[in-house]
Amino acid sequence: MKIGIDKMAFASTDQYIELTELAEKRGVDPNKYTIGIGQDRQAVVPPTQDIVTLGAQAAQKLLTPENVRGLSTIIVATESGIDNSKASAIYVKHLLGLDDYVRTIELKEACYSGTAAIQFARGLVALNPQESVLVIAADIARYGLNTSGEVTQGAGAVAMLISANPHVLAIEATSVSYSRDVMDFWRPLYATEALVDGKYSTNVYIDFFKNTLTRYQQRTGRQLADFAGIVFHLPFTKMGKKALEAVLQDRTDDVANRLREQLTASQVYCRQVGNLYTGSLYLGLMSLLQNGQIKPGDRLGLFSYGSGAEGEFYSGIVQSDFAKNLSDVDHDLAERHQVSVPEYERLFNSQLGMQAADIQFDTQADNAPFVLAGQKNHQRIYQRR
Ligand code: CAA
């Protein structure tokens, strides 16, 4: 039985900054950001948006009266949880008006947990093939103003329906997971911004990619030539290039050049939005499917990485109706508007964060279908428009 991704949808905020403008304000050569890091724009998050509102917005785009009937479970995978106890999936389910007879849970392991959610969902569907699982990978990547990680921030959610007989990607049986206790990126309970050893994290990422790919190749006997493309977790687009070149080295044959071309196609949306943490690999998959030379029957490799650290390499076969089962990311990105760097800084400092006080946000300027209206008696107040 084929099990995998049946539908995919993306949501982010409706505003962004140009990274050339950020570079100018930070006194950095813009080429460092656009070429050295490989990012052009970055999503800006108003205080009225968080992982619940972004996740609900993405999920709403793929749910239909037919497919909600088979839904058994909602898994929200996130690094940016909004409560130390209660699962954000419960808020998402409520905002979407879904049946109460649905399991709701949250998963965490930095940028990796979206992949864990998909693998767990595969198991659930294998046990009950008539049921489906909604996986939402949603995050707000925050490093802080004027930090070296600032240029690698971003925000958004990718929602995926995992089912039998999927329309986008049938996941293959072999996957290789690899984990080690590593302090490359973490966020203590009292912190709203990540702590990171940036250079070290890029080295660990490459190390984990090589380890999982090698073991995958040993187990399956497959070579790089067997992949139409490899999709990477993209904290910034240059990271995918670093990892791919670490295995291609100085190869210039057709296979190597094809993988390089498809990598470029997978980076298109990340360049415009930034790091989605758990969702980045899957926005990369949407980007490759919408911008690359991919056809039904192609095998894609997927490399997932979450600091701390956990990596996984797995593969899937592209299905015939894939193009009709992806939300229109180009349209959403074209609808966004630019804000200035001072406005981004003001919004960055206006987040609810760790505040305990009652607060009411002005939601007038936010046109999203779901908003965070504030906090009262330590409870977040969400609104559906
Ligand atoms: N023109 C062109 N390129 C330039 C340039 C210029 N004027 N100036 C610098 N560059 C290049 C540098 O040569 C460098 O390229 P290489 O990496 O290919 O050598 C690149 O721009 C970046 O320059 P620096 O290394 O000097 O940049 P930095 O010290 O400011 O830090 C960073 C970069 C480490 C990525 C930092 O942004 C960071 O810490 N980001 C967050 C951590 C992160 O994303 N890690 C990724 C792996 S961990 C992960 O994947 C999980 C996750 O999502 C967090």
Give an account of the 3D structure.
The chain has 385 residues and is α+β, with helices and mostly antiparallel strands. The chain has helices spanning 19-26, 30-37, 51-62, 65-69, 88-96, 113-127, 198-220, 237-248, 254-266, 268-273, 280-291, 329-334, 341-348, and strands at 3-11, 15-18, 41-43, 71-77, 103-107, 132-141, 154-164, 169-179, 185-186, 195-196, 229-232, 299-306, 310-318, 337-338, 359-360, 370-376, 379-384. The strands form four sheets. The protein has a nine-stranded mixed sheet with strand order 5-4-6-7-1-8-13-12-11, sandwiched between helices. A three-stranded mixed sheet has the order 3-2-14. The chain has a three-stranded antiparallel sheet with strand order 15-16-17, with helices on one face. Strand 4 (71-77), helix 5 (88-96) and strand 5 (103-107) form a beta-alpha-beta unit. The protein folds into two domains: 3-168 and 327-384, Thiolase/Chalcone synthase (Peroxisomal Thiolase, Chain A, domain 1, 3-Layer(aba) Sandwich); 170-320, Peroxisomal Thiolase, Chain A, domain 1 (3-Layer(aba) Sandwich). The radius of gyration is 20 Å and the shape is globular. The N and C termini lie far apart (40 Å). The structure holds acetoacetyl-coenzyme A. Belongs to the thiolase-like superfamily. HMG-CoA synthase family. One of its GO terms (molecular function) is hydroxymethylglutaryl-CoA synthase activity.
